[in-house]
Amino acid sequence: MSFHRRAVLPLLLVAATVLSSPLPAQAQSAYFFPQATDAAAFDAAIPSPEQFLGYPIGSRYTRHDQLVAYFQELAKHSDKIRVQEIGRSYEGRPLLIATVTAADNQARIEQIRQQHATLVDPAQPRSAAGDSPVVVWLGYSVHGNETSSGEAAMLTAYYLVANRSAETQQWLQQSVVLFDPAQNPDGRDRAANWHNAWASDPASSDPADKEHVEPFPQGRTNHYFTDLNRDWLALTQQDSRPKLAVFHQWYPNVQIDFHEMGKDSTYYFEPSPKSMHSPLIPVASYEFNKTLAKYHAQSLDALGSLYYTGENYDNFSPVYGSTYPDFHGAVGVTVEQASSRGRVQESVNGLLTFPFTIRNQVATGLGTVRGAVTERSGLFDLQKTFFQSALKQAAQQPVKSFVFGDAHDPALTRRLLELLLLHRIEVHALDRTVTVDGQRFDAGSAYVVPIQQAQFRLVHSIFAETPSIKGDVFYGSTSYAIAPAYGVAFAGSRSRIDGGARVAELPPVHGAVNGGQAGFAYAIDWRDYNAGHALAALQAKGLSARAAFKPFSSATAQGQVDFAAGSLVIPVAGQPLQGAALLEAVTVAARDAGVQVHALSSGRSSEGIDLGSDGVKALRKPAVALVMGEGVAATEIGSAWFLLDQQLHLPASKLDPQQLGKVALDRYTTIVLSGGTYSGIDATAVAALKRWVQAGGSLVTYGSASKWAVEQKLADGESLGKDEEAGDADRRAFGDQRDIAAIERVSGNILSADVDTTHPLAFGVPRRQLAINKENTVTLQPSANPFSTVVRIDATPRVNGYLSERNRARVAGSAWLLVSAQGQGNVVLFADDPAHRKYWHGTDRLLINAIFFGNLVNPAKARG
Question: Using an 8 Å Cβ cutoff, are 833 and 674 in contact?
Fold first, then answer.
């Protein structure tokens, strides 16, 4: 964070002392808690973070295990704090929630929770909440290298537990404060270990010093390079789900998400600009941001710290830790502190020190508690009226019910159902066949979501088009609907559909082999999203598999079954396992993947191609390399890694870009290049890639990597679309630069596209109309080969989100996925990340197809 020049000298003296030698505990407390001038104000029996850790806060970066140990230590010494482990990160680090409140509140904490929960029930009167404390959620380190907040979490908890002032005791009596001290422990440790490993003594303030320059993938994201701050609605990560469960136990009234931004900025807190407000959210919710902002301003004014509000950061979608609460009647706030990214760094405002950044975060956290306690009554009214108004707003909607589900894809149907239940959305099983907007939904494989429910605003967010915004400046994606991204059939009905019983929990998964031991082959319909998991498992056991490139129908124990193009055929003949052993292997794969396998007694089909046809092609076992390293977009390649690990259970090699010209590429069938900058790949590596592709390799690229592949003639014969940098030469006002840039930015739009469902890359896609995510300015010209443009954006695309007229014209009719045949191999070019943010299942199955069918997608090969 920045500070006035007149504040530089005192701050540097304090900071230099903190960084060079331990201070007495009371001296460090005086710096971080200037309002607590008397050392006796703290309970001596409660160890401060410095006393427990053995170093002054801000002199080094605290590892996650030390942070966890400190919170547990507080719980050992005080009955005002209770620490729960709610889950584990992918790397096995504990996820915590610490509950801080007065001791007598702790003794009746479940009663308080239940009483508070009445606020979100529209049927309950406001009086049902009684005198229950206000609930405050403080969330830290969702971005692991925004590290001041994790240190601030320890200090803030210490203050609330140890401070003896009458004001603090009042706060504890009238509030329940929930600490999530490290939402992203894997990323936090990645950053902490880097900063600590490269720290100098004395500290170097040079921005180019290695301490301040983290390498790929940096600590912002989690193990799979997921931006967890954008995972609150999609819930793709095991790091996200436990905290959401706690959120729905408590429904906080105020939730603060602590962040950092560039070193040359100051401090930001909400309110956000009106242009970034959602019309779904009552104006009163945004107005309360202004009320809470007074307390944040007071806290920072007391320190003389610079800050600003109301200029940026969108507040209209429930994807963030500071906006998801807004969709539950709370006041959600993003706070952003200028980051030192090390212990001290030069900035335009002078030297920016780690202790200084921590102190501002502590002040904001304590100011939040002060404000919540003071404004408790208004916050309770806000939450109560929020859910009551949700029912009124729902009643005005033209759509009365959403119905979703696909009998041929139980995996994605179940996954969408799971997401809705995690968000506490009311869902009913469909108990009769209905047709909505020309789509048929069958009882037993589909579900109904009524609009008229307390969670209407989340229902709208998941299924409906993003509301239009009266403004042009966006911080993140301009569309966030989940249902189109999943690719599952869904539709909105203008008449209410009364379903059957309300779904209370997920139905069990029944993966099985139907018909017992097969006489000829086993078949799996490729339309089931989990079929790829089963295929990878079978290939891992050395079993051979084939794919039908045209539909067929066969007699099974369940009667006549239709199999779509792409469906798997596992012949009995020629396998390393036979009889009961083969059946057992297929049964285990079916059970683990949750798919239905059909035993076939004959290769003769009742309709379509027979199983001995040339149209039933042998599949090679994939060997995938993911290129990740400096210059690569971590979140994009992380999505591919996650898809392979968590969906397919298919191991992948992870290569640095610089290895491409040095390692033997012929061991890989598929190499994936996500978006990024590949200018560092030299001519030797490009030549090696060309030889590998020509020999039969399948290079999969997307976004800027596709642009690079075209420019490097790896995809020879393909061309880019209209120049994304081109613009008119009209004179513009200097002060409008930021707004104009935002207007022309492409960020997270859902567009309608046409897909060739007969192409191997589109096998399993249920309809010709496909929703795609457009996240960048890269456009591809349709292939000169008429068989090779797999997905093409509609000439007049439907747009969910904001897209300028200029960009709409640029993308209209462009290719989104095409194949460039090169010798025996090919380059598969996506215009955007098909596995975007790990929930775009409607298009990530195209990437799955590229992995399994990559050697069979060239037009000449497809003709057999």
Answer: yes
